[in-house]
Amino acid sequence: MPGPRTLASVWAAKSATLASRRLRRGGGTAVSGLVGLKLQSSLIHDLASQLGHGCVLVTGTNGKTTTSRLISETARAAGLQPLANASGSNLMRGLASTLAAATGPGGRLTDAAQRLGVFEVDEAAVPAALQELRPRVAVFTNLFRDQLDRFGEVEAVAALWRQALAKAPPGLTLVLNADDPAVASLGEGRDNVIYFGVDDAKLDRGAIEHASDALSCAVCGSRLEYNIAYFGHVGHWRCPGCGRPRPEVAVSGRDLDLRDGRTLGFEIVVVGNHEWAVDQPPHPNPLLEGEGIMEPRVEASTDMTDAENASMPVEMGIGGLYNAYNALAAAAAVIALGLPAGATPEALKATGAAFGRQEAFEVDGKGVELFLGKNPAGLNQVLSTLLLDPNRKVVLIILNDGIADGRDISWVWDADFEVTAKQFDKVLVSGTRAAEMALRLKYAEWDEAALTVEPEIGAALEKALAATRDGECLTVVPTYTAMLTVRELLAKRTGRASFWQ
Amino acid sequence: MNERRLRLGHLYPSLMNVYGDRGNILCLTRRCRLRGIELEVTELEVGDALAADGFDLLFMGGAQDREQRLVGDDLSKLKGEALREAVETGVVFLSVCGGYQLAGKSYRGADGEELAGAGVFDLHTVHPGAKAKRLIGNLVARWEGGTLAGFENHGGRTYLGPGCEPLAKVVRGHGNDGQSGFEGARYKNAFGCYLHGPVLPKNPSLADRLVSLALERRFGDGTLPALEDGLEQRAHEAALRIRN
Ligand SMILES: [Zn+2]
Q: To pair with A419 at 20 to 30 A between CA atoms, which of A18, A288, A353, A498?
């Protein structure tokens, strides 16, 4: 039973959420959690320990939101009730408010027996989140240079994660991206690791991109070599110094069909089948044994049970190589959770874009597509995805320098805008640092004559829509806070829900 | 006009590239090209030898801690002496952030470990420890009657000796050590600063100064025709307005 202090903090957190929603101060979730945490620092721990199926933590520079969403949908298809935090509420206070909002009048989680927590966690919050959430599975998607003024250097984040994992509660299974050497190294010397990766030599770019970190070996410091380079420092790497290779993957993505960047077809191969799941306890939360925990509903499809390798064709309604990685991370997490992998393809197919990430709108007969871009590696993936459709002719790029975007905007110079220099006929640039963005494009040899600088986002959106012909599509590439603003404008015009409702 | 050619040596491009530093190379290349000057860029990594008379301009950017150690090693074993000699003979040199620190005499890291620097500038840098506040934020400094604008993010505090001059006076932000009111260093044609962003594209006066000094040294004439800098000025002015 929760103690009286837990009850008080849950109540405080919930009422603050309501107040903040009425005041329309944004998501509301972060404000409420702050109140709750002040009253009871172990609120997260108390409530998370009631989750009947425990929880999974998802972190990394890029792909947290989409990967979490894919895990949630697969869990739902398997008959569980996922409890997930909203994108952008991924600090401790966001976790607290998400959990508090799922409690009933008695201060206990509602439907606790069916619940699986799926929490995306900010890179810097991983140590605290591991301690308080005590997840069964932790997924690390990738580690790129991101907001050096906020997170510090890539090496510092990797060290933070390593230390946190050394102290992590027992029984944790890691799901790691084998193709990202900084992430793969987290599995060094550990049991219970499931690696995922892409095996598709036709996507080799031949050379690593400019925005590459983690080029030196985490163990011996030698410069890594690549047989296949997909993007950033992601690929099939090998250390010539200590001989460490990219780890063998358990979940492999093959035969990728990138199409026009809006959908994606590929094959998920579960190498040697998912025997890892066998070690999982039947009831993941021993405290709750006998309280009527539901078993997962979906059974493994028959072609998967005995085969050495199980292969699942996958269709997705979102595009780009980076989303294939998100799907593979989710599929590996599903296996690590002991859920039948057979539930994955259906859920992947049904899951649309996450908030602001390849989200599409229709305004006055014109398509509008949002591609969040918040760091060089993510932006490079967005740009190569845009390049897949030569019919994209109008683009609105919005650069803000708010705290959530990173005050330091030098990162736009590390993204390869050169690759799309010839693509667009009409380019609008907006945001608090619109002029700097325009300058970046000028030096990437974009046509200066096609460039309009309009710092005010609403006015820029109107101009961009006016420049888009009927039946054509406007591409919008915003930073994080710019995405919130432009999405709110689009939601108003199209009647779509704001994110906190 | 006869095609003139300048040679730029980019020091450690794959290790020292954190804060959009390649923007500085893009900027110099473009501003030269528009004046009919071909800028030939050579990348010099760890293990590559540097000839003191091989270049008209040299550039070294910022790095993360681990990379900074690798570079420090290479400077003391391989390139440091040639770099000092180049600067003594008037070669133009720009170093930013981590590169600026390593161009000094020494760098003491957060762990107390001391790295020898290239010794181009009479300055030393001390990181007061992992718990000390990093000097982060938008930085504006006064330089030759105009302004320089950018962003700084450094743990180390840099102290100038009598053998070099400060580059600019801090208007807003921290600069070298957060106390002295100065930003950057200058010795002969060598410039060092914490300003990144990258520093050159939105501070075209500094970019042109570097090119002009290199032209003067090589061809005896550093005059540069003006360029259309509308976007550069807008970006500069926007950076001046930002409050931390
Ligand atoms: Zn190694």
A: A353
Three-state SS at A68? helix
Show me where the domains of chain A are located. 4-350, 357-494
Range of the domain at B146: 5-241
- Counting Cα atoms < 13 Å in the Cβ hemisphere of A425 gives 10
Is domain A4-350 classified as CATH 3.40.1190.10?
A: yes
Chain A touched by B208 (CB under 8 Å): no
Which residues from A are below 8 Å from B199, CB to CB? none
Total count of residues recorded for chain B: 244
Q: E strand or H helix at B16, and its extent? A: none
Superfamily of domain A357-494: Mur ligase, C-terminal domain (3.90.190.20)
Q: Are strands B106-108 and B92-96 parallel, antiparallel or unpaired?
A: unpaired
Task: Quickly list DSSP for B24-83.
Answer: HHHHHHHHHHTTTEEEEEEEE-TT----TTS-SEEEE----HHHHHHHHHHIIIIIHHHH
Cα–Cα dist A199/A197, whole Å? 7
Task: Please report, as a single letter, which amino acid is at residue B23.
Answer: G
Helix (H, G, I), strand (E, B) or coil at A205: coil
**From the CA of A271, how many Å to the nearest CA of chain B?**
35
Kindly list the protein residues that place their beta carbon closer than 5 angstroms to ligand 1, a single-atom ion. A 217, 219-220, 222, 239, 241-242
| Closest of A258, A208, A261, A210 to residue A235, by C-alpha | A208
Spans of chain A, pLDDT less than 70 = 1-41, 148-152, 209-214, 273-307, 498-501
The SS3 of residue A174 is strand
Report the number of distinct structural domains present in chain B. Answer: 1
pLDDT digits (tens, 9 = 90+) for B124-172: 999 999 899 999 999 999 999 999 999 999 999 999 999 999 999 999 9
As a whole number of angstroms, the distance between CA B210 and CA A455 comes to 31
> pLDDT tens-digit profile of B95-126?
999 999 999 999 999 889 999 999 999 999 99
Residues of A in Cβ contact (< 8 Å) with B27:
443
- The set of catalytic residues of B is 97, 196
Which residues from chain A sit within 8 angstroms of residue B30, using beta carbons? 443
Matching CATH topology for A4-350 and A357-494? no
Interface confidence (ipTM) of the complex:
0.96
Q: What is the CATH number of the domain that holds B174?
A: 3.40.50.880
Q: Which residue has the tokens 């030569």?
A: A390
Please answer whether residues A135 and A168 qualify as being in contact, where contact means their C-beta atoms are separated by less than 8 angstroms.
no
Do the Cβ atoms of B22 and A155 come within 8 Å? no
User: SS3 of B176, please?
Assistant: coil
A/B interface, count of CB pairs below 8 Å: 93
